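User: I would dearly like some help making sense of a protein record. This is the protein in question:
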Amino acid sequence: MSFEEQVLMDLKVEFAARAERRRRTVRRVFVGAAVAGLAAAAAIVVPLLTGMQSPAYAVTKDTDGTISVQIKEFKGADKLELDLAKMGVPADITYLKPGKGCQKDRGQLVGGEWPTTPQEWMNSVHEKVAEVTDENNVAIHPQYISNGQTLLMEISESGPAPEGPRARLVFRRLLITGKVMPCTVVDAHYQLRGGPAPSTSVGR
């Protein structure tokens, strides 16, 4: 074999070795990038999966100013109060077990005295400020809330409704001027959607 042939053969071997090294390097970079991509995807997917839980409530504001609250679970009352405050509604919300309520006297009622007849309740600001629109939705009308007033809402379930398996909300709402006293849980003394119980006076 001549000198020139030996040099040519050595160059071919060197070029082949360099090409093989490049292929290995590209494979390592590609695999490393793929692993990093999977790790990044996992870091994104985990929060998405853990964040897919349905919220306890939903709050929307209608074009007429009415604020609608859909209650899905009886939790997160403090956060719901903050969300309502951002919409201009000072609220005190208490979730209760069926058959339970808060003590009657929790502050100074707007209007001074408890309405004692069905007609008085229908005409009172307490009746107008909020209402249950179906099994788990409450509509709040902020125009009835003045400065220094707080919308007090005590909410529980009545158990299965006669027409179906879904429970209805038992709901008392009152407007309080000034400080609102904490809830002391007692046996419920009001009927569905507010008003005094029949033992004291007839409500709704």
